[in-house]
Amino acid sequence: MRFRRQRSTPGHQVREDYGPGERQFGEWWVPPASFAGRRPLVVLIHGGYWRGRYDLHLEDAVAADLANRGYLVWNIDYAPSSDPWPATLTDVAAAYDHAFGGAFSSRIDRRRVAVAGHSAGGHLALWLASRGRLPIGAPGASRHQRPALVVAQSPVACLVTAADLGLGDGAVRALLGGGPLDLPNRYAVADPLALAPSGVRTVLVHGPGDDIVPLSQSTTYAAAALDCELVEAPGDHFVHLDPASEA
């Protein structure tokens, strides 16, 4: 498949499609020229409870900050939960994989690849780290470049519990097409908790006062995972999108 590549926009951004779908694209945020050679890569995944009214621009401030610090950033978009299962998962896997053959692949230091996601994007980041544990034929199960680090900010890390709690006004059921009792096979391949430990170094950043995704989502995942650090940071659910915040 030939991908459409578009002109760069101000701020060292370059949009690139990883597929033909409306949301199958990402934006490269390229470090200033003073950062020459191969650079560590951060793949950013936005949140918004997988709903279509949210997009990759939620991560613009974080992407700009990271690029200015010398990181090469691939900020991705993906199909929302309103698309048929498993489009959200397969889009995220395809977007991640595309980075290593995309417009700036020659600039990537493949020893230093991180995935960072906020909220529902935190779920997708943890899921990406667990792809090596997926059974053959599952969405996203394919050979891939394994990240060295995953940072999940206020992640929806335990889908069964999140579905039972009705987090995001039923967002998990909308993503998977039903509840855990109705679709156990889908939960088994989409829930980071079910796939833990991922085998990838993991840092969870979550605030005790988060009233959108409760801290218990991270504490439960951390208890099941290996090589996983949980950092409790002050502030509400959205401070993770502010590079000036402690989170």
Task: Walk me through this protein's architecture.
- The chain is α/β, with parallel strands linked by helices and 247 residues long.
- The chain has eight helices and nine strands.
- The protein has helices at residues 60-68, 87-98, 120-129, 159-165, 167-176, 184-190, 192-195, 216-224, and strands spanning 5-9, 13-17, 25-29, 39-45, 72-76, 108-118, 149-153, 201-206, 228-232.
- A nine-stranded mixed β-sheet has the order 1-2-3-5-4-6-7-8-9.
- Helix 4 crosses helix 5 (167-176).
- The longest helix is centred in the middle third of the chain and has 12 residues, at 87-98.
In short:
The protein has 247 residues and is α/β, with parallel strands linked by helices. It has helices at 60-68, 87-98, 120-129, 159-165, 167-176, 184-190, 192-195, 216-224; strands at 5-9, 13-17, 25-29, 39-45, 72-76, 108-118, 149-153, 201-206, 228-232.
What keywords describe this structure?
247 residues, 8 helices, globular, nine-stranded mixed β-sheet, alpha/beta, 28% helix, disordered N terminus
Oligomeric composition of the shown chains:
single chain
Query: pLDDT below 50 for ≥5 consecutive residues: which ranges?
Result: 1-11
Overall helicity: 25-40%
Provide a count of the helices. 8
Ends apart, CA distance between termini: 40 Å
Strand content: 15-25%
Largest sheet: 9 strands, mixed
Number of strands: 9
